[in-house]
Design goal:
The chain is built from three helices and nine strands; from the N terminus they run αββαββββββαβ. It is of the alpha+beta class.
Length: 163
Amino acid sequence: MRSSLAVVMTLLMLACTKATPATPAAAAPAPAPANGPRIILPDGYVVHLEIAADEDTRQQGLMYRDRLPDATGMIFIFPTAGDYPFWMKNTLIPLDMVWIDANRKIVHVAHDVPPCKADPCPNYPPHAVALYVLELAGGEAAKHKLADGQVLRFEGLDKVIVR
């Protein structure tokens, strides 16, 4: 009798459990820890970071996200400085892209870049040499008055291994 009851209870629990969708859009970013890697903008605003420091993570970027939490962004770190155009394939939200040189100086800002609606997706080149690209929610760069020539403060990024 007990084993029959246990089987019935198990089946009921499984029937009532909600399945998690397996689509990439269901993946939500983990909240950035308050003491984790961050960039401090010239106005003192702190951006907590997800890091894209290898080819796979840089290619994935912020694809399939339906939002970017306040005070968060993604920093793309490249092994060498270069002219790195970005695109918005499979990106669902508008983003600001901030290209930053090896001295942590802003060399280009692309504001409110829209999601790509159809292939081929356009590229957004900086026409400048950069080592980093910071992606923020659309409108954040204007809100914090980010401009070419400003220097950003990086914290917690000194031990990142770039591949």
